[in-house]
Amino acid sequence: MQRTDSDIISIIYSGDTDATKDEILSKVKARFDISLDPRLVHFVYLQSRYLVEDSTWPRFTLVGQSIGSMYLAWEAMSKLVPDLYIDTMGYAFTFHVVSHLGHVPIGAYVHYPTISTDMLARVKSRQRWHTNTGAISSSEILSRAKLLYYRFFMYYYALSLRTANFLMVNSSWTKNHVDSILRYSDDLLDLIHLFPPQVVIKLFTLQNAPVSARIVYPPCDTREMAKFPLTPRKRVILSVAQFRPEKDHQAQLLAFHDLLKSHPEYAREGGDHVQLVLVGGSRNEGDARRVLELRDLARNLEIEPHVQFVVNAPYSVVLEWLSRASIGLSTMVDEHFGINVVEFMAAGVIPVAHASGGPLKDIIVPFNGEPTGFHALTRQEFANAFQTVLSLSPEEEAAMRWRARAWAVQRFSEEEFERGWNQSGWRTYLASS
Fold first, then answer.
1. What PANTHER family does the database record attribute to this sequence (predicted)?
2. What is the pLDDT of residues 213-258, one digit of tens each?
3. What's the confidence (pLDDT) of residue 63?
4. What secondary structure does DSSP assign to 110-133, as a single string?
5. Model confidence at 265, in pLDDT bands (50, 70, 90)?
6. Which residue in 272, 211, 225, 248 sits closest to 357, CA to CA?
7. Average pLDDT over residues 391-401
8. Which of the listed residues 58, 206, 309, 428 has the most CB atoms within 10 Å of its CB?
9. Preceding omega of 245 cis (within 30 degrees of 0)
């Protein structure tokens, strides 16, 4: 935007009250090699960010964070009303505040829906999940109560999304879910909202509300990674993901254990030795505790000598591992996009990812009719995929690495992102504000 529209000033609402603009822009330069004109970008610092943090709402987190985001939006609008508001954080409930206090057009780039029909289905079927604990899934009464809570939340989340003027999403998976949310209806709640005072809420939705979202794949800086030599590579299975519960690092250790169990030669020092390296960020005490639990699991599985944890490493260290590894591993179920998988492919690392979400539908797909990586569902399938990659002939291995890189560089470049961003029509809404 600075390159093509030098008359536009970008304002960023930020809760990083302890960071100066110069510090933030310097970090952007160091991390992404992007130089921003400080005259055209400014920060409005907000004091109420704690209201959208998980720790503030140990119970009823979804509704708590959503109400907190509305207060945060009120603080933002009281400090500066923009000509166009674009949400990139997933705070759809802020749209009501911005629309009715600021009277400005609203756009959004949705990375992951706050709630999805999958979440409703898991509660309804009483499936245990990281968003549906065993205490709830094992109780019919609690499951029914949570389902009713989710129904109400989904209803108002859909109303919030419909308040936007335009919506962008980061993958086919996210688009399918956001489109279904935009079409969501609940006969009981629709009936309730025919009567006052609830009928007023219906007026909050735009008459020309969006009926679908546009896919705009996130930009991946593939330039440096595409310079890495494709061969030779170390026999390293690499995971790059924050130590969050949904990333399912436990499944990675179990799959690696199965590989070593079926191929003990990979556990011996020498040419066949295989190593699992877990590179990731630890954001807080919860993440740090998960790392300790994962170390204990590796010890109990007797694979500890072959597993390395690299926690909170600088970007240069991440790049070093990407330049050396053979296999890139991602086990998250329903990963909305999977930029780590794109980075694997751009770096020439053959990806093995869960057969769901963005890695299944958008990223690890055939290039020129030939595979660019592998999908798996179970720990055994992951172990089998590892073995398949490790058994490739040098010619097959080099060809797959080349295809993976060619597809990633072609499909997920910054140029593709810019094209999709501009096709959203954001300029039109800015001009009309």
1. GDP-MAN:MAN(3)GLCNAC(2)-PP-DOL ALPHA-1,2-MANNOSYLTRANSFERASE (PTHR45919:SF1)
2. 999 999 887 778 899 999 899 999 999 999 999 999 999 999 999 9
3. 93
4. ESS-SS-HHHHHHHHTT--BTTB-
5. very high
6. 248
7. 96
8. 309
9. no
Asked if 379 and 250 touch (Cβ cutoff 8 Å), the reply is: no
54 pLDDT tier (thresholds 50, 70, 90)? confident
Q: Where are the beta strands (DSSP E) in 185-274?
A: 214-215, 236-240
Give the residue from 404, 389, 398 showing the smallest Cα distance to 274: 389
Q: Which residue has the higher pLDDT, 383 or 200?
A: 383
Instruction: Say if residue 185's pLDDT is above 70.
Output: yes
Alpha-carbon 53 to chain mean position = 17
What is the Cβ-side half-sphere exposure of residue 158, based on CA atoms within 13 angstroms? 22
Nearest CA to 328 among 381, 370, 377, 364?
A: 364
Question: Which residue's structure tokens are 């053979």?
Answer: 326
Token code pair at residue 279: 């590179």
Which distant-in-sequence residues (6+ apart) come within 8 Å of 171 by Cβ? Answer: 215, 217, 336, 337, 338, 357, 358, 361, 362
pLDDT band of 198, cuts 50, 70, 90:
low
The residues pairing with 327 across neighbouring beta strands, listed in sequence order, are: 237, 350
Angstrom distance (rounded) from CA 373 to CA 198 = 51
Q: List all residues 6 or more positions away from 81 whose beta carbon is below 8 Å from its beta carbon.
A: 101, 102, 104
Segment (H or E) for 86: strand 85-87
Q: How far is CA 264 from CA 226, 308, 378, in A?
A: 34, 18, 20
Average pLDDT value over all residues in the chain: 91
Lowest mean pLDDT among 132-141, 156-165, 391-400: 132-141
The answer to whether residues 207 and 99 touch, using CB atoms and an 8 Å cutoff, is no
